Structures are given as structure tokens and as C-alpha cells.
Amino acid sequence: MAYIQVPEGVPGIRSLVLFRPETGKPLYELAQVLLRGPSPLTEAERELIAAYVSGRNDCLFCRNSHAAAARCLYGEDKNLVDEVLKDMNHSPVSDKMKALLNIAGKVQVLGKEVTPEDIAAARLSGAGDREIHDTVLIAATFCMFNRYVDGLASFTPMDASAYEEMGKRMTEKGYVLPQPQNNK
Amino acid sequence: MAYIQVPEGVPGIRSLVLFRPETGKPLYELAQVLLRGPSPLTEAERELIAAYVSGRNDCLFCRNSHAAAARCLYGEDKNLVDEVLKDMNHSPVSDKMKALLNIAGKVQVLGKEVTPEDIAAARLSGAGDREIHDTVLIAATFCMFNRYVDGLASFTPMDASAYEEMGKRMTEKGYVLPQPQNNK
User: Fold this and answer.
1) Which residues contact A76 (CB under 8 A, 6 or more apart)?
2) Domain count, chain B
3) A11 found inside a domain
4) Partner residue facing A110 (CB), from B16, B145, B147
5) Cβ–Cβ contacts within 10 Å for residue A133, how many?
6) Which domain holds residue B135?
7) Res B184: pLDDT
8) Which pLDDT tens digit goes with each residue over B45-54?
């Protein structure tokens, strides 16, 4: 049971933005532009950063849903997602993604944890300002979403098929503010 | 020096949204609706929660600017702000604000830190669903802003007068996306 009265059976963030659509609107717009808008990072890479940070914040709803979206987007390489979630440093992602995920992991702890050396390592592996910016903002944004979802104890489905369906919807439709009549 | 090439001399979040206005737009809209839109919490109380969480995240830019805004909004009671930042539990805020700030402090650590007892204590002191929702979302949102601002090492002014001016602007004008020609 969520801590506040949200529509029953609606999972995670969707229940919260139905409770308060005024704040839900910019939250969904942020997710859409950040994860689906133009970026030198692919949609798959951005969803992977979101899942990685959510996993570190122990937010099952966000980790599972964004991991599912990342698996859809990686297609044939979908096993990469679980390898990163299990052990990022020994996973077969590119050096650039490793350097960016390292920055995202620092941001998850606290902004000041990111050092000039972390940034230099990312640049050395080919990341530019935009990759670095988007990585930091995605990591920071999921530190918000994770706390919003868990801080109000919103409904976290436990069956894998629910997340598979969410991942598919997030891949096909992006982030569209749910409407009261179609909220599941 | 910020880690990415942002307009020189522009402090904190303002420099970052000038670098990337597409994400800046929903970020400023979120701040505006959350801190200035309709809420059972006063604008002063909401700015105080923002400053309190930012202080706990050791984000000087956000703590100092939102504390300055809270001082403007509290008027005669402005000393309250510094008493909360120094020692919330022994500060002279109301029991309701103390219970909400306690929840905000838990959210700052991690969403799952918030317990049913924390929520019950807030309700006992008179807080309803909306106060609880807005407190959790403000705390979560500043966990994002703090990490964005510090994770990219954006410019943090060190003189108190700069923050006083910011606080005044935030009180009078709210959160308006800065434009390239008027960015300081």
C-alpha cells in the first residue's frame, strides 16, 4: 500500500503522476527529452544508465522497468544489460560506456564524488561535453525518480512479465503522461 | 571551472540549463509548479525543505540560494531558516514541519528509508496526503538538482550577497528559464 491515496493497482511513478498531474507533466517531459530526445548517446545506452543508477539506489520498480526497456532497445545484445547490472566493471560494454557508467555511479552517491579524473577518463575514451552532461543529468534524474517512487511506497509489481510489457511500451511509445481512464 | 563548456561566470543550475535548454525547460517548470504552484505548504515552507535537503547533500549553491529565498519568504521569522539548517530537531518550527522535514531527511538518504511510522507521525501532526506528497517530491527533486549542479562542478559563488540577490529574484519572479542574453 502506498503511503498516500493513489489509484489502486497502478504501479510506481504512474500512480504518483495520476495523484498529482501538475508535477507529473514536467516529470514525464523531462524523461521524454532526456531518454528519447536528440543525444550522442543511443536510447539503449540512456536506458542502461537509468537502470544502473536505479539498481544502485535499490529501486526495484525503476531498475526493472528501465532494464526491460534497455533490453528491448539493445535487441540482440540484450544480455549486456544484465551483465552491467551484475558487475559493470567486468561487463563487455565499451570503454566509453564504462567511463560514463562510472560517472553515473559517482553521481548516484553524491555530485561531489565526480572527480576531474573521472571526466578525463571519459574524454580519453571518446566522450564529449554532451555525453558527459546527459550522463550526469540521467543519473541525477533517477536519483529523484527512485526516491519519489520508494519514498511514497508506490506499488512495485513482482512479476517479470509486468516489466517486460512496460519495457515494450516505453520503447514504442516513450514517456507519455498517463490519463485517468487508461492508467494501468 | 565546470567540467563542461558552459557560459562563464553564470552560477549553478543556470549555467547548465543554458548549455542544454531542452532539458532545462521541464526542470524549471518542475521547480515552478512544485515550489510556487498551489500546495497546502507555503512557499516559505517549500523553500525551507529545498534548502534543508540541499544542505544535507552538501550542495552549497542550492542550499545557499534556497535558504536565501526562504529567508525572504519567512520575513520576520527568517531566523528560523538558519536554525533549521543548523539543528532541525531543536529548531522552533512547528511539529508538522518537523515531521515533514524528518521525512525529507529520510528521502535524502534513500526512498526506502521512509517508514510507515514517519508517515504516521506527520499525519498525527496534521499533515495530509498532499503535504506528504509534496514533501517527498521536493526532497527527491533536490536530490536531483544537487547532483546535477555538483556532478558537473558548476560555478558556486562564495559571497553571501550573490545569494541574497538570487533569493530575492526567486521570490519575486519564481523559476523562469534563463535566456542566453540575460544569463547572470
Assistant:
1) none
2) 1
3) no
4) B147
5) 25
6) 21-173
7) 47
8) 999 999 999 9
Q: What is the pLDDT of residues B54-103, one digit of tens each?
A: 999 999 999 999 999 999 999 999 999 999 999 999 999 999 999 999 99
List residues bridging with A179 in a β-sheet. Answer: A182
Half-sphere exposure of B34 (CA within 13 A, CB side): 28
Please tell me the pTM assigned to this model. Answer: 0.97
Distance from CA of B141 to the nearest CA of A (A): 5
What backbone phi and psi angles, to 5 degrees, belong to B182?
Answer: -145, 65
B118, closest residue in chain A (CA to CA): A3
pLDDT at B174 over 60: yes
* Nearest residue in B to A33, CA atom: B23
Q: Grid coordinates representing B108? A: 535524502
Q: Which residue from B65, B44, B66 is spatially nearest to B163, judged by alpha carbons?
A: B65
- CATH of residue B119: 1.20.1290.10
Alpha-carbon distances, residue B112 vs A97, A128, B42 (angstroms): 29, 35, 26
Q: Is residue B178 part of a domain?
A: no
Tell me if A144 is assigned to some domain.
yes
**A76: closest CA of chain B, how far (Å):** 30
pLDDT digits (tens, 9 = 90+) for A87-139: 999 999 999 999 999 999 999 999 999 999 999 999 999 999 999 999 999 99
pLDDT value for A184: 47
Does B184 reside within a domain? no
